Amino acid sequence: MEIKLSKTIKITTLFFLMVFTSNAADLVVRDGGAGGAYATITSAIAAASDGDRIIIRPKSSNLPYIESVSVNKSLTFVTEIHGVRYAVLGNFNIEAAAGRIVTVHDLELEGTNNVTMSSDVTGNDRMQINILNSRVNNGFGDINFQKNSVTVNVVGCSFRSLRMVHGKAIANDCEKIIVGPDNGTVLANDDIYIIANKIFTSDLNVDPVEIFQPQYAFHVLNNYIKSLSGSNYVLITSAKENTTNFINNNYVEGTTSQRIRIDGSGTGTGTHNIVINNNILSAIDVNNSDAFVVATYNVTTNTAFSFSSVDIQSNNTTNVNFTTSPTADILAVGDNINAGDPNSIYTDIDLTRNDIGRAGGSFSWNNYWPLQDQQPYVFFLNTPRIIFNGITTFDANGSGTTN
Ligand SMILES: [Ca+2]
């Protein structure tokens, strides 16, 4: 009898647990509240609870939902019609809260509006924001998440500028990516990744990529970076002490030079390494005694490189021939093929030697483009990778539970 009672209690507990963990709801938003749906995104958010999903049906003729959206819960936003973004005319603001997770798919933010956060996150937990397959003001609006304790993943989006303090920017079509300091109380435990973005600015005196934070190591990989100004194209003004940072396999183009500048003018810089490998560029300008800079296997069509205060430079090649498209749709082809760093950690995804430029290495541009086709995809795998030829012995031990 006692045993039966115990079993009943267990089953009841399990039942309540299941109910509690599976109570996330889908709330549907449709034009005019058709079919009992919510008529506005705002009303759906008001009725939602943390963990819910808001499914938004694009209006006919792609007319926008005319409302400014403020997200004050952990919610996921998706389109009801696969492959069609829902349009919103108004600002899209995400309110800060420790532990909050907000994911936005398929947003078409229209008018002169931006995706913003109004304040820093405070408390002992971070916040995470994911923006995927979205477009801001037809590529001319901004995404500003440069707030303390916010980790962002912005993937496959079109906008003018992205500001953040930590996270990943992957396969975006934009003019500028800026990473500022994270002065939050709880730091993230992984690095910053800027991968396979098309970053093309025609603004004078704008640096397409700018990093000025000492909290995280950074990886700037396989980007197409072009500026019509005479300024810097990748600008690093501070980095985390005792880290190794990577600027690899980028295509860098400017009017006067193809320049990366390592500058010590930011705050918090301590001794650190910066590896600049397998890029198409023509100039590296180091003005930071805390940075130990290595530049190898870079190429340029120019007759000479301008490498100022680079600590180690080898295997960089001038006068190379290759062709590329200014629209970034065609990859560089020519002397850069199979000419990158032969170390196996840089091996291409077809297992050949690294192709210098965007197509080379594990984070090949080819993994991510064409983007914005609104198909689901895996955008990042945090797996160590190495190619090994030969025979070796693995020292393997296993353990497990026994009954
Ligand atoms: Ca290759």
Terminal Cα separation, in Å? 27 Å
Task: Quickly count the helices.
Answer: 2
Quote the average pLDDT. 88
- Count structural domains: 2
Q: Strand order, biggest sheet?
A: 1-2-5-8-11-14-16-19-22-25-28-30-32
Category by helix and strand content: mainly beta
Ranges where pLDDT stays below 50 over 5 or more residues in a row are 1-20
Helical amount: under 10%
What general form does the structure show?
globular
Give the ligands present. Answer: calcium ion
Q: What is the radius of gyration?
A: 24 Å
* Count of strand segments: 34
Give the amount of beta strand, in percent.
Answer: 25-35%
Biggest sheet, open or closed, and with what strands and sense?
Answer: 13 strands, parallel
Jot down its keywords.
mainly beta; 7% helix; 13-stranded parallel sheet; disordered N terminus; globular; 2 helices; 2 domains; binds calcium ion; single chain; eleven-stranded parallel sheet; 403 residues
3D structure, described in words:
- By secondary structure, the protein is mostly beta strands.
- The protein has two domains: 26-179, no CATH class; 191-373, no CATH class.
- It is built from two helices and 34 strands.
- It has helices at 2-21, 41-47, and strands at 26-29, 53-56, 65-66, 69-71, 76-79, 86-89, 92-94, 101-105, 107-110, 115-117, 127-132, 135-136, 142-144, 150-155, 161-164, 167-170, 173-174, 176-179, 192-195, 198-201, 209-212, 218-221, 224-227, 234-238, 244-248, 251-253, 259-263, 272-277, 283-287, 291-296, 306-308, 312-314, 322-323, 333-334.
- It has a 13-stranded parallel sheet with strand order 1-2-5-8-11-14-16-19-22-25-28-30-32, covered by helices on one side.
- Helix 2 links the parallel strand 1 and strand 2.
- The longest helix has 20 residues, at 2-21.
- The chain is globular, with a radius of gyration of 24 Å.
- Mean pLDDT is 88; it is low at 1-20.
- Bound molecules: calcium ion.
- Residues 337-338, 348, 352-353, 355 line the site of calcium ion.
